[in-house]
Records
---
Amino acid sequence: MPRPVPIGPDPDSLERLRALVAATVERARAAGADAAEAAASSNAGLSVTVRLGEVETIEHTRDKGLGVTVYVAGAKGSASTSDFSDAAVNETVQAALNIARHASRDPCAGLADAARMAADPPDLDLYHPWPLSPEEAIRIATETEDAARADARVSNSEGASVSHQDGIFVYGNSHGFVGGYPSSRQSVSCAVIAGDGAGMQRDYWYTTARRADDLEAPAEVGRHAAARAVARLDARRLSTRSTPVVYVAEVARGLFQHLVAAVRGSSQYRKASFLLEHAGKAVFPESVRIHEQPHLRAALGSTPFDSEGVATVPRDLVRGGVLQGYVLDSYSARRLGLETTGNAGGVHNLTVEPTAGDLDALLTAMGTGLLVTELMGFGVNGVTGDYSRGASGFWVEGGAIAHPVEEITVAGNLRDMFSGIRAVGSDVDRRGNIRCGSVLLDRMTVAGN
């Protein structure tokens, strides 16, 4: 039997990183910092790609890093290193101090409040080692691609990949807080090209999870990738029109990424948001609830504390369609005269609660309109909310898919799109930090012929 490559953290790694972070903070304080914080990480992984039945790449990864930030008389300095030796750590601390001594003072800079530190961080079951050998990874990738290529209409392949990543993260600061945890992430993906006399179409599918047992079966990933590519054959363009639109779940996630960007503290204090000062105002229909669930066990977006050591807590970002607040770290909170929301580093399992059935139910409710399965380009203005993206998908009539479409543009304004959400589906995509189902929008402009 092939011997698995030991890529995960050894049992002592977490304690060694905790000791390193604590010592780095103490060195910074002893060298003259009024306050200091440090974060260390160690990651290792294996990635294999098979294309057209042949092994294309086998990649082992291993990296580590230490970052330190110091505060001196209201000024901030940061430096980092991948060398954990005493000499390198000392040099890194001195570099951060030198930067702080030449930086401008900022009254909002500093550690998060001591009272907000995660005093008793919960174990969220984030680490599930997968004893994956290169030989086993090749077998899984081959099975995935073979399942996709079994469809005679699949004419080429961009390959199937299997990856496994283990990591440890530790953060500490001069409040006396030091916390850390190991985590893992596994994935299987496949991208293929379908072709016929009328042309070719590419599509893909992937599965990712903390636990290998939670991944979709390799053959299912391959078959799904093939089915998606084949379904796009003989795509047509549409004439320009205004029509209802359904975004499939993996595409709908992007809508709520735009929401997060608009209510992030930095966008608010820079006055660069189409939702400027909208806390307490209706942004969505009354049926929409969007909330963070940072403590879901084994979920991809779970964390016991943010990147400043602040304890994460469940909270509603949108309730009854009304924006409840912003996404803040300690710096942006001080700039706005508010309190941190524990979002240094981003949101944690931001969940859009379903209001309707699955994708088929949303298509039935839409009747006639556009189903968007892919978006291209970056035509989104975060200040005005103007939205224009290249798109492809399917035209729907009578609640059923009529034919694929391509080379179109969907356009609108995010304010109108948010307020025009008619339904959120129950087909929740949990493969990322924003968890939502498909979304039915009341109306958008579709530009084509």
---
Amino acid sequence: MTTPSLARVFLSYKRNAEPDERLAQQVLRSLSDKGYSVFIDRKLKIGQDWAGEIEAELRESDFLIVFLSEASSRSEMVKGEIEIARKHATTAGKPRILPVRVTFTGALPYPLNAYLDRLQYALWQEEADTARLLEILHDALGGGDISSPDVSLAQAPADGDLPPSYAAPLPPPGGALDVDDPLYLERPPDRSALLLLPQRGQTVVIKGPRQMGKSSLLMRSVAAATRAGKRAVLLDFQLLDRETRESSNLFFRRFLASIVEQLELPDRVDELWDSGLANPQNCTRYFERQILSKIPEPLTLAIDEADALFGTDFLGDFFGMIRSWHNLRANPVKPAWKKLDLILVASTEPYMLIDRPHESPFNVGVMLALSDFAPEQVQELNRRHGSPLNGEQLQQLATLLGGHPYLTRKALYSATKERRPGDLFAQAIDDTGPFGDHLRYYLLRLQGKQELVTALFQIVQGRSCNDESLCYRLEGAGLVKRQAGKVIPRCQLYADYFRERLHPNA
């Protein structure tokens, strides 16, 4: 007799990677035989219908089992599915994420480490581990108490169920943003940052659309600061949960708590908070007295994804406060502020974040704007990869990608390790092609944002988009750019792919 359906399970894995796919299929069969309703993305469907199905399945699932190999931990699609699961879990309490490490015990790349490091995981090293893994998964899905001495999928203790703090962990050596990466191409903004950050009392704004290299430059800047003997704190506002975004009081308190956590200082935020003062006043007073005055070294405060505050009620209060911190360095009776560096990273045009110039931290200090690779930079990257592409193919690559930094490196890696250069171009917009993981991740990000879908479809069709706010959101996401006063697709790859996949009236 068939066992009745017990729980809904979503399996997340990297396609065409082994042993990931084989293990996922084994888990699928075992859980299905036990009566669980299991979703696995085995047949790709074209366009938004597929993205909508993925989002709907994750929303309805009780558990997300994610298979983390070295390859899948760097998959944008796996990251996207985890992000959707976390978003729904903050409001609905599900799905619960159950990580399975697959022949991989190294450090997870950012931001997966911020999402998953607080969770215990199961470890699969070889086929002999499969039976034990299935037992662990069955126990976890059944809600049983797992007390095995083996590494298990039991929920992490204490705050393991909560969204992680938005204090972003600095990447370990060898991570995705390794500051010693021999393939990293240094650009003029890099040289400027590396000259500025050893000096005291700097304000640096790093600006550019998604996947332009902002976070890599941020990490290199933080590394330069620490080499100069400074303490460093890194916050990533894309990790803000819904509860924090909706409460000014909670945001400012957690902002300070995240800083003292990284600096390993006592957390006295709640104890010293004065309900008679405004949140920026409380925050500034605490930062001066309990942070700057408690550490002997200079401090570099780096904020990634600063524009994630866009749309919050406290956006102006926070950025006005950061501007005041910049100004306090000139106050002779406040010497502690002279040892503070500020690094802000944003994708959106600064004036979209705060329209009062005298209160904005984005028009002071040094602005480092990142741009796409020039042809000579692409040639140099090709050389560093062992010259997999000839001159004609490099021209094809320039036409297809327009110097997009992330996709250029992805293309050269693929041409070196995965496929013939000719296939690189022939399969460019295929969902299983060299850029398929990246392109499908964008479909997931656009899911449920019909106004952005319509605007992007108009742009890839060569028509204008009259809503400036939508244009800036698409530009910040790295999907479009401005050229000769017109908004156009960021590169030909995006134009070709989204022209075929988007349904503007869905």
---
Amino acid sequence: MNVLQLTVHFSPNVGGVETHLTDLVYGLAKKKKTVFVLTYRPLMTKVKWQLLQKGPSYTILRLPWIPGFFYAFVKNPIVEFLYLTPGLFIVTPFILLLKKSEVIHGHGLIAGFVGVFWGKFFEKKVILSTHSLYHFPSSGMYHDFAKWIFGSASTVLCLSNQSVNEIKKLGVPASRVKRFTYWVDTNQFSQQPVEKIKKELSIHNKFVVLFVGRLVAIKGIRELITASNLLPESVRILIAGDGPLQKEVETAAKESKKIIFLHALKNTSLPLFYNAADVVIVPSTHDEGFGRVILEALACGTPIIAARRGAIPEAMDESVGKLITVTPKNITQAITSLQKNKITLQKLKKNARSYALKRYSEKNIADILQAYEK
């Protein structure tokens, strides 16, 4: 089976969706599927990239595009659509003709539009995946446009129950709306010795809190920095990522010994830092589509403090961490509570790895394969 993957973002751009799509491509290649990925060069992460990348059973084409505008346009859906659609739209029909793809798998609204448009033209099966919550209006042009896109797909794969309900409310038949779940390589993301990294960062005998994600306001970075001022000197907050708020994080790290800025970490390095942390924090102030960081941290046996928002409560429960309403005060209370109660912390750690093994193994790719082959 030949599958065309359409996505705005792909590695080496950094993010949870990008990591999932990399896992998906490699997973499909293992299942003897032929995969072609059509995407853009990294638009948010400053990193080296290849125009054309080939591997066993997969090819990745990254279209040259003007970077640096994503964060400026993301708040204006029309401008974002005009910025991100043309490249995928123009090149997709040529890929379909050359590669004879049997299935088009679009990720997100923009790639979904391109997929269903050309899918109808070439009479191809189209699968769409949602990776976030859209909060569509109950009526109007945006509602109708989204309804046409998702309603035109053979199957819509939703990352959470909230997303399932959101797509059904558009009027998409329930029979065509299915759940899928991310997975992690539980051999890579596992419990590892961390004495060396703790020594390098001078975090021995400290209570370590790790944040991994884009440095944007909706990820709760400012709330976390404010909370650092309320935390005891025995706490260290490690922040890994890049984005528009990087300078604010760098300044905070210079002004406070409690904050250590790690910049963006390679995916291969993440397990070491998850293991070095006593707890991972996901203080989002918007509705997360799921939260891949949660899956990775749990697979490493590290508990989570996370926002009780969006689909995060579907990704974890309080057997492996704490769910909070994000404010600096609540962040502080959650961290200090786990720092003081070592018995509770050890119980959460004990549960974390088994929780991930049960829910987030590579077996989850079966839901996507089923949609392809249905």
---
Amino acid sequence: MVAYNAEESSSAITVNGNPISLLIVDDDDTVRETQESFFNMYGVKTECAGTGEEALEICAKTNFDVIITDFKMPGMSGLELLHRLNEKLVIETTEVIILTAYGSLESAKEATRAGAYNYLLKPIDMEKLLMEVENAATTSQLRRELYVLKHSDVQKAPAFFEFKSPRMRETMDHLQMAANSDSAILLLGESGVGKEVAANSVHSNSPRANNAFIKLHCAALSSGTLESELFGHEKGSFTGATRERKGRFELASGGTIFLDEISTISMSTQVKLLRVLQEKQLERVGGNKTISVDFRLITASNENLKDLIKSGRFRKDLYFRVGVIPIKIPSLRDMQDDIPKLSRFFIKGFCNTMGKKLISVSGDALRVLTGYSWPGNIRELQNVLERAVVLDKNGIIEKDDLPSELTKETGKAKLEIVGDQTLKIAVGEYEKLFILKTLERNGNNVTKSARKLNITRRNLQQKISRYQIKVR
């Protein structure tokens, strides 16, 4: 076969000036050669594989914009190949098109759920296939650029992730809309849910994105040190102040300042903070010169500020200033559908950082990860996966490689057949365990748990009473 030089033809297709890379997977030699010859005419860089196993070996060494695979092949099918590519995170930046002569609605749905870009029936119109490849490559290269720019730091991943969870998708929509304004944002949520990451996302998508993003963890500093950090200080204003120093508000001027755990700020510092927020002016510690500042404020708290107002620990007028747009970040246990993809994403990031070959996750391990309640949220998930990557020896994370507290918790809801139980008793036992687990995952909130179980609140309360479940 004669190689085609794309640079010599005006018919060559590119995406953003880059040639398209394509892997063709088919057990029929004639089909592979025909498709390869056709795509070469349009300057597409192609490689071929005769089996799914061979395709996986090639993908371990080379990245592709698009993979075209036949659905029915000896050994590994196209759908099985798609699942394996999923496990190895290949389709994070590669689009897969499945071709089949044995189409069915169910197989099309399964392919789409598994992440296929499209599912096409044979015989294939090659011009149409070319258009599909070009569109898929455009999507692939955009995703790759986004990955490089925004996912290089694994800590930033959740802010730019495509979530399945309706609650998190709604939260991300709110963050995106809020980013376009200059109003103060208050991020609420449990420790470890990614409030700092969300703040970074807001800044990155705001008109202030090209200016500074300054952050400060308020709980880590004493009241005096915190004021110096926020407002700056003049030389000689206190012991150790050997030079003039700008505070975080000055450094953030023109950009965004993020104050984490604002609930821990003392009442005296809250008064000074309120003035800065109202007037956009400050004086450094030990100084009397008024300095004007221009910043966008984002704060975060894992405590309910309204409760702190009632107990006299937080100023009501300050709350109205910082909480113009309150946004709740869901806990990880409310985003179980996202845990497999998040896990694979973090694993890939850790493997890249450590220079290790990409590690996959077994089905049993994924079931443990999705069944755990994650009290430490995304931060805990990252910790568990980083440990697993560091200690990995076999290139795959198994159930036994995870901490014992995960496997113990997810094993609690297993049903055992005891003696000559009737079906009614066995079903009742399982229903009780299922309700207990759902309540636990939803913070013992009956209304939220009923919604997750797809039953009425009254129905759930009746079951709680019947099974004598104690709800804290």
